[in-house]
Design a protein that fits this description.
The complex is a heterotrimer. By secondary structure, chain A is mainly alpha-helical. Chain A folds into two domains: 1-42; 48-286, MetI-like fold, CATH 1.10.3720.10. Chain A contains eleven helices and two strands. Chain C has one domain (2-245): P-loop containing nucleotide triphosphate hydrolases (Rossmann fold), CATH 3.40.50.300. Helices cover 36% and strands 27% of the residues of chain C. The chains are: A mainly alpha, B mainly alpha, C alpha/beta.
Amino acid sequence: MSSTIASRKRRNEQIAFWLFRLLSFGVVAILFYILYFLVSNGIKAISWEFITQMPEDGMTKGGIYPAIIGTLYLVAGSMIFAFPIGVASAIYINEYTKDGVLKKIIKQMTNNLAGIPSIIFGLFGMALFVNQLKFGDSILAGSLTLGLLALPVVIRTTEEALKAVPDTFRQASLGLGASKWQTTSKVVIPIAFPNIITGLILSIGRVSGETAPILFTVAAYFLPKLPQSIFDQVMALPYHLYVITTSGTNVAESRPMAYGTALVLIVIVLIANLLANALRKYFGKKVKMN
Amino acid sequence: MSHLETELHLLKEGLIEMTRLVKIQLFKGRDALLNFDRDLAREIIVNENRINALELKIDRDCENIFALCNPVAVDLRFVLAALKINANLERIGDNAEGIARYVMEVDRPFDEKIIKGYCVEEMCNTATSMLDNTLEALLQEDTKLARQVFLKDDRLDEINRDCTKTTLRLLKENPDNALHYLSIMSIIRKLERVGDQSKNIAEEIIFYIEAKVLKHTEEK
Amino acid sequence: MNKLESIDLNLYYSDFHALKNVSMAVKANTVAALIGPSGCGKSTYLRTFNRMNDLIDNVKIDGGVLLDGKDIYDKAVVTDELRKQVGMVFQKPNPFPKSIYENVAYGLRVNGINNKKILDESVEKSLQQSALWDEVKDKLKKSAFELSGGQQQRLCIARALAIEPTVILMDEPASALDPISTSKIEELIYELKKKYTIVIVTHNMQQAGRVSDYTAFFYMGSLIEYGETKEIFTNPKNQQTQNYITGRFG
């Protein structure tokens, strides 16, 4: 009697185990297939010239250099904007506001901000930065728009990082007569730093792949030169990819270029993620808890 | 020295102080008896209060150490032993006082013959030297010294056994001194008790140092 | 005069009445232990002495808490200044992610002292008082996390001593430590009372017995019994106290 129960238990255990194993392997398999697909199609396009030359012949030949540079500018610009504001807001929410209506409202708003589709950000950016503030289609307008998009991510990850710092550290510092700001800057932020950095870099990954917010604010269809100031337009990788696969002068001929562009974009995002891990490990070691 | 060590050290000092006081009482008891010194006897009776007070203090110290310091192993044995040594010392003190009271009660000095006949002096000396041994054993944490007590006790038992015979013999010789015979007999009995109590103390010291229980065994 | 005193102290977390009319006094240079079952209010009570409860939202306090006869909940009192006089050590060792030296120097630095000579002296003195100096004097620049749990806790005590408080509050300072480290901390407390007044919360009754001169038993937010530790442990006046310390609770 009991042995049949035991054997049934074992069988169910086996089924559950294999089911979960199969599903998670499936996820990994899909990811690898995407990578394989991109690499096998795109590797032919990759060459030194591809990443250092201007596009030529209606984007069927040449490289994607201005798009890479444009993306880097936009990422950097958006982070300069989003990082300080995001981190400061998170510190305010987590360290300074007491539990109450105000805190709830701020948190709800940042959550809502994160849920807004990116095309809406693009539209808003165009209305505010491009038209209202008269920045025109420019790196500045694009960076600000992307920054807005990244803001909730930065706030959320920073907040989580701060929340993960045990309260006894704050109490120990305050107990020694330190002020709130001394406590936050000398104790809390250094401990939370690895996780804050992780959040920052993950949002870089997110921002670098966005197309919609830059569509109306900065991205140039074809601009075979580098920008001179923050009021210039630039090309950007995701938009370039979109353009040459859908509305280029010769879609079929630029197909290999499209795969190459996609591969470069993926690699940039992957590098950002690996960097995030490396930095977290590096800073994590410095503030290792036991 | 750690907190517990300090407390144990103080307890031991209290115990040594107690032993010294009791020893002095016993010495004075002997002198009062042999020299028929009533003033000395009175002094013993008065000093008994000090011993009683010290007994209570040591008891309280032990209780506090148990309640507050949670002694274990050798420390635990020491406090347990201290409790029992303390009780035995107090009883020895009582016996010394008892001897003093007999000295106060009799109307005239004991005959030399009686003192000799009962070996009173030897009895007194043996009993005090046993107590002395326990004190030294405690001070030096030396179980060899403690074991000497067991041998000496045999002599006390012997004198005590002869006591009845001696009384009968003396009664035949001179029945007028019957009251003295009975007093001395009681004193002998008390000294025999002192021997037993010293033996108990020695057993406790050995228990504390060697963790061996010698009570109710022949092997010593 | 009493070093610390509370008079009819009541504390509420929102609607929860956490401390009920607690009145007790702690003499200078003694160790007072607060014991009682979880949630009895002993930790909350401890934290009224350095106003650590102020950090929690929706706390309301009435009654008086006196340090050297002065009300620390008076409007004129600056909490930073108060906390320099009343140091605190926590349940889990929580050194900052800094070097051993910087951990001890932290309290001085945040109070504006950056003179190297003063810091050096204070760090050495504090580490000596917390009986850690000999173990760490050659590695002051190393991270505090390289120390063992017991050493970390003594480091936290040194950190609290560096700002020269007169009172030290300890919230179960040895509950996360092994027996050897625990007895080191206990010996340390016994030493420290020569210079400081110590209030310690402990779940370990034997610890209360070993380290404290006075013991307070809390139950459901009320101070049930307060007296000499010897008395509480040998002859408690209240039946609830007796049940708790003998482990026959409930």
